[in-house]
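Cross-posted from the bioinformatics board.
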Amino acid sequence: MAARKLKEVDAVIIGLGWTGGILAKELSEAGLKVVALERGKMTTTDADFQLQQVRDELRYVQRQEMMQDASRDTVTMRNTPKQDALPVRRLGSFLPGEAVGGSGLHWSGGTWRWSDNEFKVRSLYEQRYGAKFISSEMSDLRDWGITYAEMERYYDKFEYVAAVSGKAGNLKGKVQPGGNPFEGPRAREYPLPPLKSVLSSQLFAEAATKAGYHPFPRPAANASRAYTNPDGATFGGCQYCGFCQRFGCEANAKASPHITVVPAAMKSPNFELRTHSWVTQILKDPSAKRVTGVLYTNLLTGEELEQPASMVVLATFTMNNTHLMLLSGIGQPYDPATQTGVIGRNYCYETRTGANLFFEGRSFNRFISAGGTNWVIDDFNANWNFDRGPHGFVGGYIVSAGHNTNLPIGNRPVPGGTPAWGTAWKEALAKWSDSSMGITSSGGSMPHRYNYLDLDPTYKNAFNQPLLRMTFDFKENEHRMNAHAAQVVNELAKSLNATRMSSANGKPQSWTVVPYLSTHNGGGTPMGTDPKTSAVNPFLQSWDAHNLFVMGANVFPHNGAYQPTGLVGALAYRTADIIKSRYMKNPGPLVSA
Amino acid sequence: MDRDPEGRRAFLRGAVVSGAAAMTTTLPATAAAQPAAGKAAASAPAAPGYVFLSPEEGAFIEAVVDHMIPADSLTAKGTDLGLHTYIDRALASGWGKGERLYRQGPWKQGTGNQGYQLPMTPSELYRAAIPAANAACVKAYGKTFDKITPEQREAFLVGMQQGKVTLENGPPVRTFFGMLYQNVMEGMFADPIYGGNRDKAGWKLVNFPGVIATNQQNIDKFRDRKMPTNPLGIADIS
């Protein structure tokens, strides 16, 4: 049966998390008739994050209540193209959200300003180290086509909407005490002062200072006190409840789309939200470089519908955006054999290692924390004076400590050699678990010819469409970065003279789907200035359809050390701006190919 | 708030304070009528009997949880904490029946990096593995797991953990053991509404404060010293 065709609207937005919410608000306020299609359900703090229910580790962490339902749609994975990809049957390594608010409900709020170290990565490294420094298998490492200076006002916009608490490290070019001295110049302070530190972040900061580094509180979208954002959304002050990552916030202290941009969009009579709406295809006009709308299924009735639209905004999670581009046949799929095609290209992830320290007799009260109680050093990332030459890697890593969301089922630290059960285990747990802290590095991940996404030849989703296939492993660049990070982490850890310590592992690691690593997946529809190697232009407009805008970290040509959301949000505001100021008046390519 | 930071009244006041700033924080309507924190801590034992486990499976699980969590000065034994009930309820729940698990074939063993690849739900895995584990026990010690000595139980569990025990005509032993161990830990530390962690014994062991966590003052007040806790669970404030 043919899909029932609905009346055309000005813009259809696929997915209503941070980026969909931003575009929904901005475009509907600009007078466009906007429909958002979200596969999950509605989210409100009242209905979904009431106090006693929300403090349930089993439900939200182990049972993944707010995450994408893998029984309906998942990815397949393998480490190399020679292996058979198999489905990720239960989510593990990364956790995309599924509901209004998306992954913006369960993030912990880390919000960063990515710098020109990322946006000009190829030119900077070639200039300093020569072209040979970048291996031929990393040939897709390139400049992004944007600059920090262009992004500044959009970072600012997102930070003020998202109640980011932090301390400026560089105001209008002047380095500020207490902040990150390596950040780009900002026009004004963060909207809110930093969150309080905890003992572990304090110890880390002392050790880092003594070692000559520059620690500062991690900027986070957790309101350090009550706040009203420029759109009128109100935040409560963070209670340091310790249930941040993987949880909704009952105090509305953690910025999430469902309390900010989504309710702001819903105030506009031009905006309509349809939940339980699963988009299976973006429809294109084969004769012109445009898309014409989307095909979706109403999950409450099973009915298939066509929503025609003059503009489509693709705003789901990183992998799902790439998946829908492939399923819709928009843009040429990437082929690693010939290194041609763009969709699925530049898929990158994150490089991590860490040490655990145990201090006999000390109490960290590790269950008290917020997303922003961590302290961080950026000396090996945004600091361009850090000479990567002798270490042979591109990119960098941040190092942090601070007990962000430790709960008793999933986090049971005991020193190495402790039995896994019995009285001796209980004794060790009682003695050591609250006397422990970790120091962790989070590093970037660079594009590699054989790390990519395409359609799986075997496995299907609930709509009988091929699953997305992920081919990924950590490569030489990541191994070198991790070896360096482990050394720095271990030196800092040793300087704290803990009673017991398990060191950070700096040996080459292979990527595995269990346990959790990070939901900072990037790439798949990379931005760039050359349509032969990028899927979207620097305004996130598809090269293959000028009325299709693709949001999300999937547009990152490589992954940096920072959490992605600050940049993802800023890029969404920038796209909204260019649509309003240029595209609406004169629809067509914003950049000539 | 400073005088009883971990108590119910502190929580109520904290919630009211943050509620004034937040858009939507609400109090449970019945909270005021609830007993005081200390009295609420003693919870009634879960209903006896199993929803999912057969008598053989029940005896196996009871022996496992009592061996892994023995009675000592720190906690009561596993069955007295309801860990067997927790596992039974978990296997009967949506999770046990394969909720959120991608279940389409074809099936392959895969590399270790590819995660869980068995064509079984958790409850099916337990159902297949327990008789096979008992058969391995009988072969090694002449008796099923629930009848062997504590030393034999220890050796057998370590053997399963290390993959040295083979489950003949059964699933991969380390996959089963990994799930079993994870479920024991869940029963020990999940909210008592799920049937385990009776009297919040697991939470008390690690000084976890439970669902009440308005720590804006506590974060400074208890810096570098242990915060006293009297944990409350979901049922205590529902």
